[in-house]
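Much of what follows relies on a compact textual record of a protein's fold. The record below shows the convention in full:
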Amino acid sequence: MTAPLGWTIPSPPEGRDAPAVLRVRMGQRLDGPAWAAAATFFGALQMTPLLVLVALRLGLPVPGGVALVTAATLGLWVLSRRHLSPAELVLGADGVAWQQGGCSRFAAYGVITAVAPEGRDVALTLRGGRRVRLSGTRADPVLQSTVVARIRAGMTAAAGEIPPTLALLDRQGRTLPVWREALRALGAGGVYRAMALSVDDLGRAMTDPRVPAERRIGAALALSAADPEARTRIRVAAEASASDTVRVALEQIARDALDEGALAAVTRGATSSAARSVAAGRGGRTGG
């Protein structure tokens, strides 16, 4: 299979049908350095005379003036390199992660309300009205349409109702050892079966974009307690996640090594995403 521009498509584990995780660069690898070099060159032409005047005004010796111009040019290069590089995306089973402008962000499909191509970019509208432009460095309609279609498919999958029985997996403020023990007790007591929550339901919940991140971790913990052979399935779910914090937590569960730090990172990520949605709702602004 030939991948479009910038795509990396990892193969699923042998004998497993993993949800496709697509890693996408919205342009060629050298686009960022090329745009940055051009911006630095023309910017240096404009600012060098001004910096020379500043150096003369301050009475700096020649080496000091040269150092001032060099430092300003290097700073311009770093800023240009950061902000003119193409966005790098991870399209997972649970949402979209992107890196651009020196920042990394994640949005679950459930908080994306619209997606569309705009020029060389792909524009997302998040719940509350905030708009994000995923920057491209060259026009590629095939890449854009494929990204948009993938995100829309995720949005559709996230639009349904969450099965109420999954509330059994909620942490409810408990410490990790207490929560893990409660999930094991539920499995041992047959409560999952009584509430029509099967091992397959737990497996699907781990990658369901409708399910909150912390509840997905609960599903993985419950699955590992109910089925000792579930580690491969949990690793597959980890590989399908675009969220770094969720992926790390699932990988730790697959090794039976989940710690409070990884769990706290999942909780912080969910809390900060909710806070950004609320803030955007109070004053929708455009940003990345």
About this structure: The first helix runs from residue 31 to 58. The chain has three domains: 12-27+85-157, 31-81, 164-270.
